[in-house]
Amino acid sequence: MSADGASPDGRAHGAGADDGRWVGRSIRAVEHRRHLTGTGAFVDDLQRPGLRHLAFVRSPHPAARIADIDTDEARATPGVEAVLTAHDLGDTAPLIPALARDDFVPVEMPLLARDRVRHAGEPVAMVVAATPHAAEDGAERVRVTYEEETAVASLEAALADDAPAVHDEAPGNVLLDARHADDDVEPDFEGAAAVVEATFRTGRVTAVPMEGRACLAEWDRREDRAILYTSTQVPHIVRTAVAGILKLPERRLRVIAPDVGGGFGQKCVVAREEALTLIAARAVGRPVKWVEDRQENLTAGFQGHDQRYDVRAAFDEQGRLLAIDADIVCDVGAYSNHPFTCGVEPLMAAAELFNAYRGSRYRARGRAVATHRPPMAPYRGVSRPQIVLVVERLLQKAARELDLDPVEIRRRNLIPDDAFPYATPSGLTIDPGSYREALDRCAAALGYEALRERQRAEREAGRLMGIGFACFAERTGYGSQVFSQRKMTMTPGYETAWVRMDPSAGVTVAIGTSGHGQQHRTTLAQIAADELGLDPGRIEVIQGDTDATPYGWGTFASRSTVVGGGSTKLAAIRLAERLKRIGAHMLEAAPEDLELRGGRVVVRGAPGHEVALEDVARLAHLEVHRLPEDIEPGLDAHASFDPPGTFSNATHGAVVRLDPETGAVTIERYVVVEDCGVMINPAVVEGQVRGGVAQGIAAALYEEVVHADDGQPQTTNLMDYLVPTAREIPAVEIEHLETPSAFSETGAKGMGEGGTMGAPACIATAVADAVAHLGIEIDALPITPEWLLQALEAARPAQRGAA
Amino acid sequence: MKPAPFDYHRVDTVEDALERLGELGDDAKVLAGGQSLVPMMNFRIVRPPALVDITRVPDLKYVARDDGTLRIGALALHREIEHADDDLLGGFGVLKAAAPLVGHFPIRARGTFGGSVAHGDPASEWCMLTMLLDGEIVARGPDGERVIPAADFFLGFFTTALEPGEILTEVRLADPPDGAAIEEFARRHGDFAIVAAAAAVDVEDGACTRARVVVGGVDEVPLRVEAAEEVLAGSDLGAEAIEEAAQAAARAVEPGSDIHGSAEYRKKLTAVLLRRALTRAVGR
Predict the structure, then answer these.
(1) What ranges make up the beta strands (E) of chain B?
(2) Which residue of A292, A701, A719 is the best one to mutate when testing the B interface, meaning the one whose CB has the most B CBs within 10 A?
């Protein structure tokens, strides 16, 4: 048995921690063995007799009319069995993501493009063949005649007066125009000691999950049902949506998420290809598999974070933030995603802009702008990496103008400990957290005072070093009340857990969350284990199968530990109650005197007076004639949980060094002080922090989806889309604080997106800190070496040639 | 992506390889480590109708010394250079220093020195160093063996003097320099360099008797920059001379632009990297 109490097969055995509790322990994840020994089952691992393979013909043009599609040569390709276009899909319902808002323009996302294409990579036809190679051979031979049109490939182009319309329904290309808040901010600006005004830009990025999107569809003739295996974060949402598109009763579609190699939001929306793979399977009467390659994922997959903020902020002489006036524009690409729609980025940005800081008045406008680029999906953090960047930079600029220390100005503005629950100017209510303490601890961990000293010395020697921070509140685990405010066509938020014990006292937890790297099978078992007095190794968590789990929403928005964990805990408590009632009958004791511990029902304070859970379970299933009449057979419990939400917080701090000759940025240290309430499994939390920080650093310094002015994708492979390697990411030092949540049953808060939220701002403020004395502002991401070198040379020509 | 259809042949000797290539025609390609060729096939950028796999030919895998000449067999792995004996390499230690820059660990475990040189990427370390060190490329074809000086070997992007039906069998380096170094700039570890600069100098009595400078990433071939070499020849190889040579190189090169670097940025990098390479080469 290993030191952490986990046996070699990953299952925990034994009595657990000293206090018998499993929550809070870093037990080895159940998922690891499978994933680390290559015995996982991802969609591409699935084989079926007679399996066929699907390849898509995708538009090379960002904007064009389709004049003709000639499939003759493709059909004649060896190995090709079928070639389908939009006219061959049968009777389908249109996919029109919508919000019930007057300021929202719904547009249809066609499955296969019919008469026009709106982004390079849009699927136009599909080819079914005996092998993936033959499918690709066939796809090459589909002859599409396009009439190219002028493409709008940027926010500026889309908003220009004479811009072509991506959709006829939205002349001017605005799909959402929301005035979130409209306080009278002018008096704050007039009376301000400092007014900071700037335009911030973050480049478009894409999630790059290790496994791209993939589907395997089969029609079960015996059962007259369809089964769709798909690499998704949201199996029930996919089932409801795809059944609707195919006009299939929902009970006749089963959606299964097998092992999923990452999603990060790219897979929490419905993909056209999910419906199309089912249609292809139906057309050829065989199971059909589609596995996208990296080029498809990078060029045609959902993308995000392409935003511009024109912001003014007013500060008093103490550096306190008075008001923010923001005009937020998001390039959401050619279509809305389902179910969150293209409104999710601008609405979230406008709703959460103040983030962890106090302020009084707020005016904000958020717009979703269509362009001839792939559509947006809520990529990890959604708009929060952007708003954190904006607010951190505003504070940093104000600090400079008012001659305040950058840490001090944050301290003065962070929500203080006595202000909770705190109502933000943008309309959120933030529950207790450790905002100031996290900042102080982070600064201390970096050795802030000594760093400032060192920076002075380095600057005199002509070397550029910078210190950056990002403080933020992460909104997590919110339920249907909050989602209902968004006015989606379906309101996510709750989760239901079925917790059941079998005759051998083994437990299953079936739940609608859908892990894809978060180790839910481990953490949810830990939560249930504490309520049932069982070792987590005896608890099986079942997710990702719409036949085997209650209706639920999947995993996104940092919700699963709070909402899934809460419902799991409540259901486990109910099962525990049943076990105690039966145990009370067996032990002739009162249920309130009983405890579940070590796999037994014990009478508190009476050692030896106990019964094994196996005996209780046996009675409940197999010998029900011995149960009292008022106890039903079986050991099933279920519970739903629909919380208001809870905010975790963190402070990130970094030290960077700039090479003044090449413009390269090296991260010397990276510190995270985070508070996600009660940690179910600290190792899992730390994994999430590191992964999120890596993606955030990527957005700050490396990654950008680039389209040329004519809409042609420029970053179509991993040589050009710069995902940083492990060598570029520093060791992340992590410290934990714990402010239990009052809203989650377990005291836990979500935290999965925090890393991506803080890192871009942290790196940007660090680089800005390194060059502020040269008058260089860092207001756009990613920061490339070439740009930085140019800025350095423009600011100080004498810099060139220095050591 | 999946490659376009192709036939696969494997041979055990160079003779068989030549015979097979002769039969298959001009479009057949030799497969060694496959670290450059196979990705290009998977992207369908190249579509050879046939591959001749020479990885099992035993007599092409060596790194050997014949008096002062270093002979690198075509199938010597990048990793073998990386871990080669210092005594074996002698004055060509710059190869060992450069090896960690070649791709990533797994690439170095399969990719070959000869494959890299035959591929002819102007920013690749082995092409640059072969050029820098006045290497000779030995090729065998249907008409026998010939020796091609590096200066005549690299003709353009991924284009070398190898004729269809010929196989690169060895790279020879004679006359090691007194000091040599290579410096490169890439966005990530393991990437192809955006710009790389390599320098080799010979010194006698404190003066530079010969200087060779090659810059990669600025032209279709690894580029000898005579303008820089002229500044250095006869100089004391001090900081001023080095700086002047670096600036001369920056002025002389005419790089293209792409999303990883504009022409102007590559010129700046040329100066910076050449200065650093010369400083290290002289320091030895």
Answers:
(1) 7-10, 29-31, 50-53, 63-66, 69-73, 136-141, 144-149, 154-156, 159-160, 167-173, 179-185, 195-204, 207-216, 223-224
(2) A719
Neighbouring residues of A263: CB distance < 8 A, sequence distance ≥ 6: A207, A209, A231, A232, A233, A516, A517, A555, A556
Mind listing the pLDDT tens digit for each residue in A330-386? 999 999 999 999 999 999 999 999 999 999 999 999 999 999 999 999 999 999 999
**Contact: A717, B265; criterion CB under 8 Å:** no
Q: Which of B2, B243, B269 is the closest to A136 by Cβ?
A: B2
Does CATH place domain A383-478+644-802 in 3.90.320.10?
A: no
* Residue B237 φ/ψ region, left for φ over 0, alpha for ψ in the -120 to 50 degree band, beta for the rest: left
Cβ-defined contact of B189 to A719 (cutoff 8 Å): no
pLDDT at residue A18 is higher than 70: no
Per domain, the residue ranges of chain A are: 45-149+213-260+267-300, 383-478+644-802, 494-641
Q: Cα A154–A157–A158 angle (5° rounding)?
A: 85
CB proximity under 8 Å: A 88-147 to B: 132-133, 136-137, 140
A221-237 as b/e, with b when 16 or more CB fall inside 10 Å? Answer: eeeebbbbbbbbbbbbb
CB-side neighbour CA atoms (13 Å) of A145 = 4
Cβ of A717 within 8 Å of Cβ of B43? The answer is yes
**ipTM for the assembly:** 0.95
Q: Compare all CA atoms of chain A with the CA of B184 and give the residue at the minimum distance.
A: A662
Distance from CA of B235 to the nearest CA of A (A): 20
Whether the predicted pLDDT of A801 surpasses 70:
no
Closest CA to A196 of A278, A94, A316: A316
Across the interface, whether the CB atoms of B187 and A702 are under 8 A apart is answered yes
Predicted local confidence at residue B284, as pLDDT:
53
- Closest C-alpha to A333, from A123, A154, A213: A154
With CB atoms and an 8 Å threshold, state whether B188 touches A295.
no
Record: contact A786-B185, CB cut-off 8 A: no
Q: Looking at the domain covering A494-641, what would its CATH class be? A: alpha beta
Residue B1, pLDDT score: 86
Residue A384, pLDDT score: 97
CB atoms within 10 A of CB A130: 16
Q: Using an 8 Å CB-CB cutoff, list residues of chain B that contact chain A.
A: 1-5, 43-44, 185, 187-192, 243, 259-262, 265, 268-269, 272
CATH architecture of A45-149+213-260+267-300: Alpha-Beta Complex (3.90)
3-class state of residue B97 by DSSP: helix
B207 - beta bridge partners? B204
Categorize the per-residue pLDDT at A607 as very low, low, confident or very high, splitting at 50, 70 and 90: confident
Tokens of A734: 């992590």
Report whether A433 contacts A747 (CB < 8 A).
no
Q: Under an 8 A CB cutoff, do B1 and A702 touch?
A: no
**Residues within 8 A of B (CB atoms), A 782-801 only:** 785-786, 789-790, 801
Q: Binning pLDDT at 50, 70 and 90, where does residue A654 land?
A: very high
Decide: B54 and B31 in contact? Cβ < 8 Å.
Answer: yes
Whether A786 and B261 lie within 8 Å, measured CB to CB:
yes
- Cα–Cα distance for residue pair A543/A523, rounded to 1 Å: 13
> How far is A155 from A330, CA to CA, in rounded Å?
8
Structure tokens given for A802: 């220095």
Question: In terms of DSSP H, where are the helices of A494-533?
Answer: 520-532
- Matching CATH topology for A383-478+644-802 and A494-641? yes
State which amino acid sits at residue A530.
Answer: D
Q: What is the pTM of this model?
A: 0.95
Q: Touching check for A188 and chain B: CB below 8 Å? A: no
ω before A339 within 30° of 0 (cis)?
yes
